[in-house]
Design a protein that fits this description.
Elements: E1 12-20, E2 25-32, E3 38-45, E4 49-54, E5 60-68, E6 73-77, E7 80-82, H1 90-102, E8 104-116, E9 125-136, E10 152-157, H2 158-166, H3 173-187, E11 195-196
Parallel strand pairs: 4-9
Antiparallel strand pairs: 1-2, 2-3, 4-7, 5-6, 5-10, 8-9, 8-11
Helix pairs in contact: 2-3
Domain Nudix hydrolase: 44-178
Pfam family, one: NUDIX
Keywords: Hydrolase
């Protein structure tokens, strides 16, 4: 048996959107279960996101520390952001986020992994990229605001991040998945065997 997620869509008898926010909304679907019963399912509708594990020549990961109000924490994270435009090329979005949040550019891009962050209650899909061959971006720095105005930047060795994840000290989904995927890729076929940056992404189709 092949261990692989497969697309499937159960019948929806009715749907409603009781809340619409600036970036996301909440939807209620009446879904037909295998035994024929109909059950309501509430979930957040999300445009999708990209994240960047930027790895420098000293084997350090570019991280940032940002306040996240829903969990009342300042979390160490990797650069990330929303897919603001339907059908937006995720690589272009990732390059934009790396520039805006860290004023850094990268020459080598690969797909590290694709994840659904909370599939039981949200349809958010995230593509996490590996970016290497880093350098300072040209031009003016992006003007930050709101939570990002208080953001801290650092570069942390991969081993320190792995220890923090396993010790329960680092909690951001993209950082945890990205760092552990990096370690797994190195232990497997190597980083150069990762998917190309323009690899298809069925969860959020795009034009190259």
């Amino acid at each position: 048996m092949t261990i692989k997620d497969t697309p499937e869509e159960w019948e929806v008898r009715a749907t409603d959107t009781p809340f619409v926010g600036n970036k996301t909304s909440v939807r209620t679907d009446d879904v037909v279960m295998p035994d024929g019963t109909v059950v309501g399912r509430d979930y957040q509708v999300h445009p999708g996101s990209v994240a960047v594990l930027a790895l420098d020549e000293a084997d350090r990961v570019l991280v940032l520390r940002q306040y996240r109000h829903p969990v009342r924490h300042k979390l160490w994270e990797i650069p990330a952001g929303l897919l603001d435009v339907p059908g937006e090329n995720p690589l272009h979005a990732a390059q934009r986020e790396l520039y805006e949040e860290a004023h850094v550019k990268a020459e080598d891009w690969r797909v590290l992994t694709d994840v659904y962050t909370t599939p039981g209650g949200c349809d958010e899909a995230v593509r996490i990229f590996l970016a290497r061959d880093l350098s300072e971006a040209e031009g003016e720095r992006f003007a930050v605001e709101e939570e990002e105005a208080d953001m801290e930047l650092d570069r942390v060795p991969v081993g320190d991040l792995v220890r923090g994840v396993l010790a329960g000290e680092l909690h951001n989904n993209c950082l945890v998945v990205g760092v552990l995927s990096l370690v797994a890729a190195r232990a497997g076929s190597g980083l150069d065997a990762l998917r190309p940056a323009q690899a298809p992404w069925p969860a959020r189709p795009f034009e190259a």
